[in-house]
Write a structure and sequence with these properties.
By secondary structure, the chain is of the alpha+beta class. It folds into two domains: about 55 residues, 3-methyladenine DNA Glycosylase II, Chain A, domain 3; about 170 residues, 2-Layer Sandwich (Alpha-Beta Plaits). It is about 35% helix and about 10% strand. The protein contains eleven helices and eight strands.
Length: about 280
């Protein structure tokens, strides 16, 4: 008898709290703006975070509810998505600057010196934590493909030579690959640039020559040859001002002067060094 009584008490309590929760949910519910889901559906769903928000839904909520959040923050979506978001939110569709991931290293297995044998987790971050990896150049690509693994658009491929190559037709410029690289080798650039420096080393010339045949030795010949002052040597590394280069140069004579061919024509989708073939 006591067991039956207890069951009825529990059932009564359950019904009471159920009705209370249902009432509270209706009483204090917050109306969700339907445009949030419309914007989310228009986004590419990469969850890359290039917009500065933790996922597409978070950006959709921000761009709908906050008048200061622009409609063009979805880098992977480019102009088409920006126009759609602007249409839904009633905001102005600002232009979206195209970007592509650039791997600033040409230190393939053939050209870069290996100083150790690494047998740990096949991950660049893990390898870099153990004595800085197994490459003589402490600025070069470790080649374990962490950037490839995080790319949500299948735009990166690890080659047999140990350097990842970017597919220009698939790369959205979201920058996810750049955030995981422990050596900050990957950067985002304008896909229309004419020349690129395939090196990330800040070591002096003799050290670079010792560790990598493809590295920039900071000789400055490219800077001296450039008639527009678009190239400077900073921390023993050639740096190109792409805005000056694209605006003024139609014949990049700097390419012929580089003794290690660290500065190359900006041709995407191929391994650095194969341009000459």
């Amino acid at each position: 008898m006591e067991a039956i009584y207890a069951i009825f008490v529990m059932l009564g309590l359950g019904l009471f709290f159920g009705f209370f929760i249902s009432f509270a949910n209706k009483k204090w519910s917050v109306e969700i703006d339907p445009r949030i889901h419309e914007v989310e559906d228009a986004l590419p769903k990469g969850q890359c975070g290039a917009c500065g928000y933790p996922g597409c839904l978070a950006y959709a909520e921000a761009v709908v509810t906050n008048p200061d959040v622009p409609a063009n923050l979805c880098v992977p979506g480019k102009a088409a998505v920006a126009a759609k978001v602007a249409e839904i939110t009633g905001k102005k569709a600002e232009s979206v600057a195209a970007k592509i991931a650039f791997v600033r290293c040409a230190g393939t297995y053939e050209k870069a010196v290996r100083t150790a044998v690494y047998k740990g987790i096949s991950d660049c971050v893990s390898a870099n934590m153990i004595a800085g990896g197994n490459k003589g150049c402490t600025y070069g690509c470790l080649g374990y493909g962490t950037c490839v693994k995080v790319c949500m658009f299948d735009a990166l491929k690890m080659t047999d030579e140990g350097i990842p190559v970017v597919n220009p037709d698939k790369c959205t410029g979201c920058g996810k690959c750049a955030t995981v690289c422990p050596r900050n080798i990957i950067t985002l650039v304008d896909p229309e640039i004419m020349v690129k420096v395939n090196c990330n080393s800040r070591d002096k010339g003799p050290i670079v020559r010792k560790n990598c045949k493809a590295g920039c030795i900071g000789c400055g010949l490219c800077a001296k040859e450039c008639p527009y002052g678009a190239i400077k040597v900073e921390n023993f590394l050639a740096v190109v001002d792409s805005s000056i280069c694209m605006e003024k140069c139609s014949d990049p004579v700097c390419l012929a002067k580089c003794p290690t061919k660290a500065i190359r024509p900006a041709i995407w989708g191929i391994l650095p060094g194969t341009e000459v073939l």
